Amino acid sequence: MNDTSPTLPSREPLGPAIIRFGCYTLILMLLLLLVPRVVEHGDVSLFREHGPVEWLQVVLLVLAGGMFYVASLRYARFRQSMILLVMVCIYAVIRELDATLDSLIPVVGWKVGALIPLYAIFYIHRHRHALFPQLEEIVTARFFGMLWMSFVVAVPIGQLVGNGHFLSMVMGDDYNRLYKRVIEETCELMGYLLIVISSVEMHVQLTRRLPVEAAQVERVAAVKVS
After folding, report:
1. pTM of the model as a whole
2. What whole-number distance in Å separates Cα of residue 146 and Cα of residue 67?
3. Residue 98 and residue 181: Cα distance in Å, rounded?
4. How far apart are CA 115 and CA 139, in angstroms?
5. SS3 label, residue 107
6. How far apart are the C-alpha atoms of 99 and 110, rounded to whole Å?
7. Could you report the per-residue pLDDT of 91-150, keeping only the tens digit for each?
């Protein structure tokens, strides 16, 4: 009797995975080690509005959004989910450039970005039959854990640890408003870097997974024909 049950995708070799995650860890550590050096020399202006840190954050978000957009073209099976992630990156860019947009767009300023969540709701409703099966697979994928952690670092942790009222209570008379800016922007930078890393892992995982699943489908179809 022929066995038509699907087989698990082949595991990734340990060596490449260790090298890849080692590089991720090294990049994150270098970034964290660089922040005290910058602050030690009094270069806190790097963290201000329109500063290099803000623009680096924008570059990371654009890079991550580009990776998700490429995935929407390359992996048709997950297209709608990838487009939603692109929308999230675009909205984050708008929030980072809020001061710039306020000076460029009269009246509404950066709040024009509210159109993106509204369109996302419409998009989810329109593609709900395709989206929910996709999300069931994506949420259980390895890269989603990293993607979720990037959100946790950038938003809840960044907003809590970088909260001015919280820091003023903890530090008392030693509190300086620049501390809030440095801590908040550093957490956001780390979170955005993790988004880029998770987008890389997404491509690695899907590139290895989909050909294996296609081979399983062909194998089952061949058994049925025979």
Report:
1. 0.80
2. 15
3. 15
4. 26
5. coil
6. 7
7. 999 988 888 888 888 888 888 889 999 999 999 999 999 999 998 888 888 889 999 999
